[in-house]
Each structure stands twice: as structure tokens, then as C-alpha cells.
Design goal:
The structure holds 2 protein chains of 2 kinds. Chain A is mainly β. Chain A has no helices and 11 strands. The chains are: A mainly beta, B mainly beta.
């Protein structure tokens, strides 16, 4: 079962607008990661934020993390048609084996129209 | 470095058959994980291998199994296929980054259709 719930499930915007996606999770985490997936293909890693960080930037991406609310948000600024994809948050918790299993959210389908 | 490769990319099998999927991790990565993605259940963790040993396993029936070879390449096997096994199977190789963080890199996936 999935840990994270993402909101909204789908988002349709115009090029140049900003897109904000939210992710909520249930358990304590080591870090939270955001991935992009184009049309049922592989996952592309976008950004990682550690549990002791509150905000991270990478190009047009801005991620926030609020561990007290167990939530994160991904903001894509000045969106482009090429940003059309599904976006997933994934929480990572460290097991006693040292491995970090990723637990994915339900995803947000973003459509950016020219 | 070359990315994670998965073969085959597409596969159509019949109920009751078995299937083997292959994953080659990024050179130097010793951990390989497998995930199943379906429209109904989303992305779910199957298992993880490190140095030829299964370290972690998700909540899947015993029909799902895997192994890892000494060169870190991994295979997963699904026996007695069911219609519900139709999914995109994703492989990820990971390496330790720092302070307890592992970076996972995903392959393009194998699209399995069971008829």
C-alpha cells in the first residue's frame, strides 16, 4: 500500500504558470524525494530533501518539507509544455539493514498547455 | 556512466506462464530494487538485493522472486502469471550518498501484459 497521498490528482495549467503539488505521508522519514514520470516510462529523480531541511531549490523546482505536518510540496515555476508528466513524491525510511525503501505517493498528473 | 537498463522493454504472456525480467544497474551500484506499478495500486516495492542477498521484501506473494548475480545484475521472476500481474516493472539501482541517504536511479521499466 502507498504511504503518501498527493493532491491534486490532476492539474491542468497554461505555459508560464506555476504548478504546485502537495504530498502527505504517515510515518517518520529520513528523506523525501520527488520523481517525474512521462507516459508510463521510467522515473526521473528530480530533487531530494532531508528530514532536517525545510526548503530546497533546483532550477525551476522548489520543494518544501514540514515534518510536523508530515507534508511536502513541489512548486514548478514558469511551467513549460515539456513539464507535462506525472509527479510522485516518495518517502524514504532507513531499515536496520541500511536500505531505504521508497514508498510512493499516488501521483499528480500535470498537463501544461501551450 | 550508462544508466539502469532493463530487458525486455515489453512482454506479453499468458495466464499460468512464468516470466523473467532482467535489470543491469549502474556500474558500481551494488543495491538493486524492484517496484511494480499498476493503475490501481500505484508504485509498490517488491524487493531489494545487495551483494547477491535479498535484504528487504515487500508484501507480494511467493510467486514473485528475484536474485542478484556477482556483477550486481538482477533478475526477477513471476511464476503462474495472473491477469493482475500486468504492470510496469521498474528496477532501481542505488548507491549510498551520505548521512544515511541513498540515491536511487530507475530504469525505463518492463511493460508486462498478461492475457
Amino acid at each position: 500500500s502507498q504511504q503518501g497521498e498527493e493532491d491534486p490528482q490532476a492539474l491542468s495549467i497554461q505555459e508560464g504558470e506555476n504548478a504546485t503539488m502537495n504530498c502527505s505521508y504517515k510515518t517518520s522519514i529520513n528523506n523525501l524525494q520527488w520523481y517525474r514520470q512521462n507516459s508510463g516510462r521510467g522515473l526521473v529523480h528530480l530533487i531530494l530533501i532531508r528530514s532536517n531541511e525545510r526548503e530546497k531549490h533546483s532550477g525551476r523546482l522548489r520543494v518544501t518539507l514540514d515534518t510536523s505536518k508530515k507534508s511536502s510540496s513541489l512548486l514548478i515555476t514558469a511551467s513549460r509544455a515539456a513539464d507535462t508528466a506525472s509527479y510522485f513524491c516518495a518517502t524514504a525510511s532507513t531499515h536496520n539493514t541500511g536500505f531505504q525503501k521508497l514508498v510512493f505517493g499516488t501521483g499528480t498528473r500535470l498537463l501544461v498547455s501551450p | 556512466k550508462a544508466g539502469v537498463t532493463q530487458t525486455p522493454r515489453y512482454l506479453i504472456k499468458t495466464r499460468g506462464q512464468q516470466v523473467t525480467l532482467s535489470c543491469s544497474p549502474i556500474s558500481g551500484h551494488r543495491s538493486v530494487s524492484w517496484y511494480q506499478q499498476t493503475p490501481g495500486q500505484g508504485l509498490q516495492f517488491l524487493f531489494e538485493y545487495f551483494s547477491e542477498t535479498q535484504r528487504n521484501k515487500g508484501n507480494f506473494p511467493g510467486r514473485f522472486s528475484g536474485r542478484q548475480f556477482s556483477n550486481s545484475r538482477s533478475e526477477m521472476n513471476v511464476s503462474t502469471l495472473e491477469l493482475g500481474d500486468s504492470a510496469l516493472y521498474l528496477c532501481a539501482s542505488s548507491m549510498y550518498r551520505d548521512r544515511g541517504v541513498y540515491e536511487q536511479y530507475f530504469g525505463p521499466g518492463t511493460r508486462l501484459t498478461v492475457t
